[in-house]
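Below: protein 1.
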Amino acid sequence: MSSTAAAQKFDPARAGEYQAQSRIALAGYDACHELSACMLSATLGGEGAAHVLVVGAGGGAQEIVAASRLAPEWRFTAVDPSRPMMEIAVAEVARQGLAARTDFHLGYVDDLPADRRFSAATLIGVLHHQPGQEAKRQLLNAIASRLAPGAPLILAGNRYAYASQPLLLAAWGERWRMQGATAEEVRARLGKILEGADPPASEDAVAELLADAGFEPPTWFFSSLFWGACLARRIGDDAQGA
């Protein structure tokens, strides 16, 4: 499955149910976004100006909504390749009164000008949808090349191979059952998650991908079954020998 095919998974039907379904699939969905905003604000300081690249902003644009509460002068560039998901994000940003602070780009990070430099970036719920190691590396490299030296990246998503953690997978199914899913529906959802995503094999694998893209070792700050969130700073040009 290509990156384009991964984006096409988020068709109008899936986009429409994204917010509700995500809050079941990820226990602590809102807390993860709120803590991500807190980590960015703690790193950058919420009082000054900053320009944040939000990769995979489609859906509820929760990264933007949460960060705006702490940082009234921050601007955002939201990137997503799925039109249905982006339309939901645009509507939510407008509803929150944040449209004047947000630029939207329907497409990919690679489409942005190569000389753009952002103060920070977020990549939440995206990396495990990239098929294979090379696609993951390309995405992280594209983000890194558009960050200022020392700029933080918030990376959040599934970070274990599903088959390697059968207890977590079973608990994930129980999470759905707790929300009223039948046994048949749980089996269908487990089958879908096993076929529909390709997470890094471990936290060490995440750290290696980040290092390859020019980031410092990550600081992990949130965990929920397979899901984890971390912050990593882009290594300065001098440190990279560029």
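Below: protein 2.
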Amino acid sequence: MSLEASTLWTHAPDTEQLRRVLQRMLESDDLALLTWNSHPIGSQHPNPVTGGVYRFRGMAGLPGCTASWSVILKVSVRDPERDHPSHYNYWKREALIYQSGLLGRLPDRIRAPRCYGVEERPDGSIWLWLEDMEHLRQADWSLTSMEAAAFIAGRFNGAYLCGLPLPEPSFLRYSWMGSWVSVCEAYACGLAEQDDAWTAAAQLPSGWQAALSSIRSRYRESMGDKGHLLEALERLPRVFVHQDLWPPNLYFPEEGGHTDALHIIDWQFAGISGIGEELGRFYGLYLSKAASHGLQPPKDRLLEQYLKGLRKAGWNGDERLVRFGLNASAGLRIVMVLPKLLNAIAGLEGGGFRCLDKAEKLRHTALELLNCLEEASQLLHELWPGEAGGQS
């Protein structure tokens, strides 16, 4: 469900409402709203609970001067399927986080946009008025940028292992990965377990058939540990996480500024998770981009930087815990990627193979995720012997 621009214009803020937002933003009660305009920004396929993101610009009159301004309006819409705090995509979570004031108490060098207002609307939606990060430098997909983000993520997570209290609100204490896996499996309708889903391999080159047979076998074996992996993630040292670190949500200081600070937007998935999970989701998102550009998955390099960040924060615990969090949370993405791969194969037509390129990229991603799952299972046996699948 999404809120079309025309709907926003029907319920657009009146000038007095916008003036109040600007009073908070510009810290002046003596303010006149001179001009303003707005336009939608962001993805054409937003989060289902995001009814739109809009940039408002204009001029304001202040005592003795005028000032230009810009502010972001993010609309959150109620969704019956995502209306409980235990859901990884609980529709009210970001609004509640901003209302709690938590994002004003983040560790050093981590910043969220300032919030200038949280408004519950008559139609049941929530409007978030947020600081515009347009003046900052958005992260890109380069390895340099990704390594910098991994280091800062380590410092961010590590702060909660070294004295910074974990946030208390109940809407942050849920199993993100457990909820996400459950939702993905429901949407996939057990496709990867259905024999018929694999029959399309017959029309592929022989090398592909062998590869898919291996993927199928490894997937079935790895999924035997799924429940144990999810349980073990809940045993890891707990940290506050953003859980959606990828370039569209990450901003570095202005060009020429330090890269050891990070501004992060979109806190919809934030919560309490295990050490390394933040990096696992980060790496899982990066994998699809790496596959699209024929890049070598840089897991070890990102892990090295994340660990450096943890050490910088003062954490000197068992590195295997971090590796487990990374590999388990990244590897479990297979429940989403493998159905996409099977659907791409099913879409191949005759000798045209119009979906073959997409399938090839998904195959590379699936193989790397299986590598992660297998490493996570090995670490599971090392860290918690006797509790993993196949143990007596």
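Residues 5-131 form a domain with the Phosphorylase Kinase; domain 1 fold (CATH 3.30.200).
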